[in-house]
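Service request form, structural biology core

Requester: graduate student, group of Dr. S.
Request type: structure prediction, single chain
Budget code: on file
Notes: please return the result as structure tokens.

Sequence provided:
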Amino acid sequence: MCSGRCVGPPPAARGWCSSTLGASRPRLRRGSLPGTLLPQSILDSEKPVRALIVIAGNPLLSTAGEQQLRKAFEQLDLLVVIDIYPNATSELAHVLLPSTDMYERDDLNIVNIGTSAAPFAQYTPAVVAPKAERQPEWWIVHSLLQTMGKPSLFDDLPEGEQPDPWAKWRHMLESGSGLQLADLQADGAPRVLPAPGSFFDDQVHTAHGEIAANIEIDDDLMAGVVSMVHGWGHTASPRLRVAAAHPGSNPNALLPIGPNSFEPLSSQAHMTGIPVTVLARRLSPAG
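Core staff response, request fulfilled:
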């Protein structure tokens, strides 16, 4: 979610795009659906999304269209949040499920491989046992699938045998770079990956929202550039005591949503290079 994209859909999602979004639907080439279509897919659709599982994310703040998303999430029949920490999205959840943290699970740095200056792969094993009944995210999701009668990693396992959650990543490493997951697991040392290619495109966006923020001139920035930190805007996160006391402004309120809010080849939401206007705001005597 934090990338502005929904969880990757199965092949049937092509039909879902057609029936849900009509003529404005994106052509789903591969990968994930744009997260900026989520409010429309819940609120304005012939076949609306009725249930959503959020894993280790806070789409209410990290995706464009906070107000529309809040309205959409409140319309869901079921919102499940799997996380280790409360946030603005989990405040609206019907079910909260605690997952293992970064020290309680095996890990592979799959998230930032495509954005690293020098792409690398590194496997890290768990170093402590999970607290209470916390489980890895994959275990929770596939347990839900099994309970729903859907295909899962737990299907047809011999008695006493554990599922292999690394099968997909093992295949990706071996076919994409020639690396063996077993080698990474053996010593934990990072392996440098082949450098990715580049893709550039010119986009023009219309203004979508407005926020109030304190302005500071930074001579290190190019003239005309506005830089805002991602992840603020915790006005609706009362259980985050420190964050709620210093909520800040959510820059994602300025981003576009809907059919023209993403790059059509990759389905990645437009989250940078957005034209903005900065205006002075007159404060009240008390402010």
